[in-house]
Structures are given as C-alpha cells and as structure tokens.
Design goal:
single chain, 108 residues, mainly alpha, 77% helix, globular
Length: 108
C-alpha cells in the first residue's frame, strides 16, 4: 500500500469531518455518531464475507477487493471519529513482523 494514498485519504477524512453533513458522506457519518459508523463497519464486514464466498465460486476477486476497500474506509472513519491516528495501526502491524501469529495471539 502506498503511504501517499493513505496520507491523502487521512487528510481528506479530516477535512470532511467539519464539512456540512448535507454535502459530505463522511461528515454525515460523524454527525450521526460512533454507533452509525460502527453499524457501517458491521455491514461492510458482512459484505466482505459474502463477496469472498462468491469469489471462491466465481474465481473473480474484483468485488471482494471493492468491499474490502469499503471496510477499510469505514474503519478509517471510525479512527478519525475517535481522534486516533491511523498510522498507529500500521505501527502495530509493523511490531508484529517476525512474531509468530500464534505467539502474538497468545499474548492477548
């Protein structure tokens, strides 16, 4: 993933936080509050699951990629709403390099 794309998206999300809810989807989500944002994450998660199951049958991942993009987008909106810097997620993933997934999971 290009850091440039993520940085640009974060800038856009932050700018739209203060936009009019009538003019910006992101602003409307923030205006509706965390529960609405989390509801969207739940919906998008389900859509990722369904698209992946369809992809396994069809052999095409195009719809799955699109749904994962929607899920990531809404997760970034949630982080923004909570005032958290998404780069912390990347730092967390980086910390897990060279650590067995089983080992990392056992530490939780």
């Amino acid at each position: 993933m290009s850091d440039l794309i993520l940085k640009k998206l974060i800038e856009i999300l932050e700018a739209r936080k203060s936009a009019s809810p009538d003019e910006s989807y992101v602003a409307s989500l923030h205006n509706q509050g965390l529960n609405k944002i989390l509801e969207k994450i739940g919906e998008e998660s389900t859509e990722v699951i369904l698209a992946a199951k369809d992809a396994q049958k069809s052999g095409s991942n195009e719809h799955t990629v699109s749904e994962v993009a929607d899920l990531w987008f809404h997760c970034l909106v949630a982080l923004s709403h909570l005032g958290e810097d998404p780069s912390k997620v990347l730092a967390e993933l980086e910390k897990r390099f060279d650590v067995s997934g089983l080992e990392e999971k056992s530490k939780r």
